[in-house]
Specification:
Elements (H helix, E strand, L loop, with lengths): L3 E10 L2 E11 L4 E5 L6 H8 L7 E6 L2 E2 L5 H7 L1 E3 L12 H12 L4 H6 L1 H21 L15 H13 L5 E5 L7 H18 L2 E5 L3 H7 L2 E6 L2 E7 H5 L2 H8 L2
Parallel strand pairs: 3-8, 3-9, 6-7, 7-8
Antiparallel strand pairs: 1-2, 1-4, 4-5, 9-10
Helix pairs in contact: 3-5, 3-6
The structure holds adenosine-5'-triphosphate (ATP) and magnesium ion.
The site of magnesium ion has 3 residues, from helix 1.
């Protein structure tokens, strides 16, 4: 059984069918790309998977659990984490605290517990610090743990977003244009980071990306969306050579 199973997924905004009859499978620990021209419905598909929008049609199962109708925090708890097309960090918080915020939700303790068992509260805080530093070190951000997030260079801010998403220990990580705005050197580094994340955290990754070098460099399988619906899917090399896909991108 695939980790993520999507069948017949659809949503309409007024008269616009932004996603229509989308079928997808993402296997455990796999690296899958979701590509397509601007406005194809890629981000909307992520919004459906994470409960930002409720689908008008279709099925979403993660590890056999139905996610349709669940709210974003429940879906996060079920094992899907994401990053956004535009950076969303707590820019006035430290790098460390950006990763600790989701950990607080994940390894939560009650207020009473924190008063009554100060010892265990401190122990959990220490555990969180250690866990957050461990995640940061994978991204080579541990030395900047005390800096404000807004003081990091752009490429590192995007890495911090991924680090933060991983704090909730997802089974599936969704990345929406992780290389957007990066220079070629930063993109190259990001590719290595994404591979490393999959191997170290044993997580499946579904990523939206326009940078074809990144897509062909790291994705094993691709889904192509066009006008809300699947245009092609298959092994990366085959899909990128598919004349229908080339045509959709060149807009002939
Ligand atoms: N909340 C909404 N209300 C109305 N229309 C929407 C809404 N969200 C998205 N759309 C429309 O749905 C279509 C798909 O948008 P979406 O953002 O999913 O595209 P995308 O594939 O992510 O594009 P890009 O590559 O430019 O990010 C677009 O026509 C967009 O205008
Ligand atoms: Mg988008």
């Amino acid at each position: 059984m695939a980790l993520l199973e999507v069948k017949g997924l659809g949503i309409s905004f007024g008269g616009l069918r932004a996603v229509d009859d989308l079928n997808m499978e993402v296997d455990r620990d796999s690296l899958v790309g979701l590509i397509g021209p601007n406005g194809a419905g890629k981000t909307t598909a992520f919004n459906l998977l994470t409960g930002v929008y409720e689908p008008t049609d279709g099925i979403i199962n993660l590890d056999g659990v139905n996610l349709v109708g669940k709210k974003p925090p429940e879906i996060c708890e079920a094992g899907i984490a994401r990053t956004f097309q535009n950076i969303r960090l707590f820019s006035q918080m430290s790098v460390l605290d950006n990763v600790k915020v989701p950990l607080h939700h994940h390894l939560s303790y009650s207020l009473a517990e924190s008063f009554l068992h100060l010892g265990s509260y401190r122990k959990k805080e220490k555990e969180m610090d250690e866990r957050a530093m461990e995640i940061l070190s994978v991204f080579d951000l541990d030395k900047q743990a005390d800096q404000l997030a807004s003081n990091l260079p752009y490429g590192k801010q995007r890495k911090l977003e991924i680090a933060r998403a991983l704090a909730t220990e997802p089974k599936l990580l969704l990345l929406d244009e992780p290389a957007a705005g990066m220079n070629p050197h930063e993109t190259e580094e990001l590719m290595n980071t994404i591979r490393l994340v999959r191997d170290r955290f044993k997580v499946a990754i579904l990523l939206i990306e326009h940078d074809m070098k990144l897509v062909s460099g790291i994705c094993e399988y691709l889904y192509v969306l066009n006008f809300g619906t699947e245009l092609a899917s298959g092994k990366t090399g085959d899909v990128l050579n598919d004349p229908r896909v080339i045509k959709a991108y060149l807009g002939e």
